[in-house]
């Protein structure tokens, strides 16, 4: 029986670990052809790399109908405002926000030109609205949250759906969670990539 995404072609960033890997697995399981990108093969801090990655995805897949952006550098809780260096700031903004904008712009133009009713999903965070001693990460995620709204406004009229998911604390990807942090969570457990995949399925399978 064909999957719900049979015939789709997807680019997933941050697919080497954590949420990105789980999302790539889920999309592939539904029948889509997936190009998985991670820092080992696409360093999104480099100026021309996001555009190159978008073009590479189109070339290798033939077309792209799904874009999922999960890439984010490693981060450590309690890296407060006065402790974050400018290179750390630039890396976080580049990988999260700059890359999301550049890749979405390239793939959005591709989808419009080819009349593809595509889907884009950006993984933001609760940090977008809640400061937690991660100023570079919080600022990047707040920027992504507004970018998603701008993308939806620009691409929606062309039949391209744009959504965001905003997970809480999900250890195992770029986030190294202090064990004591779990006591502040009402469920007394951290989230898992599988929790986020459920949201992914809702966004990708929603009716146009």
SSE order and pairing:
Layout: E1 9-13, H1 18-29, E2 33-37, H2 49-61, E3 66-69, E4 75-76, H3 86-113, E5 119-123, H4 135-155, E6 161-165, E7 175-176, H5 193-205
Parallel strand pairs: 1-2, 1-3, 3-5, 4-7, 5-6
Number of helical segments with 4 or more residues: 5
What's the total count of β strands? Answer: 7
* Radius of gyration from CA coordinates: 17 Å
Main beta-sheet annotation: 5 strands, parallel
- Beta percentage is 5-15%
SS-based class: alpha/beta
Secondary-structure element order, N to C: EHEHEEHEHEEH
**Average pLDDT reading:** 87
Net shape: globular
Distance between the termini: 23 Å
Parts with pLDDT < 50 across at least 5 consecutive residues: none
Helix content: 40-55%
| Strands in their spatial order, largest beta sheet | 2-1-3-5-6
Write up what this structure looks like.
The chain is 42% helix and 13% strand. The chain contains five helices and seven strands; from the N terminus they run βαβαββαβαββα. It has helices spanning 18-29, 49-61, 86-113, 135-155, 193-205, and strands at 9-13, 33-37, 66-69, 75-76, 119-123, 161-165, 175-176. The protein is globular, with a radius of gyration of 17 Å.
Concise synopsis of the structure shown:
This protein has 208 residues and is α/β, with parallel strands linked by helices. It is built from 5 helices and 7 strands; from the N terminus they run βαβαββαβαββα. α1 packs across α5 (193-205), α2 packs parallel to α3 and α3 packs parallel to α4 (135-155).
């Amino acid at each position: 029986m064909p999957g719900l995404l049979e015939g789709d072609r997807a680019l997933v960033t941050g697919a080497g670990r954590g949420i990105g890997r789980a999302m790539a697995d889920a999309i592939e399981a539904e029948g889509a052809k997936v190009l998985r990108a991670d820092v080992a093969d696409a360093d999104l801090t480099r100026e021309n790399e996001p555009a190159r990655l978008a073009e590479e995805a189109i070339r290798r897949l033939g077309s792209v109908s799904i874009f999922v952006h999960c890439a984010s550098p490693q981060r450590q809780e309690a890296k407060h405002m006065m402790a974050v260096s400018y290179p750390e700031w630039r890396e976080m903004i580049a990988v999260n926000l700059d890359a999301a904008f550049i890749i979405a712009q390239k793939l959005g133009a591709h989808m419009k030109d080819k009349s593809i009713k595509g889907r884009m999903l950006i993984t933001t965070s609760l940090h977008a609205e809640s400061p937690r001693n991660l100023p570079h990460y919080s600022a990047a995620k707040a920027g992504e949250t507004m970018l998603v709204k701008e993308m939806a406004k620009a691409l929606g009229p062309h039949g391209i759906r744009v959504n965001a998911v905003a997970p809480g604390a999900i250890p195992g990807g770029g986030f190294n969670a202090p064990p004591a942090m779990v006591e502040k969570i009402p469920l007394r457990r951290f989230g898992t990539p599988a929790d986020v995949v459920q949201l992914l399925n809702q966004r990708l399978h929603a009716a146009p």
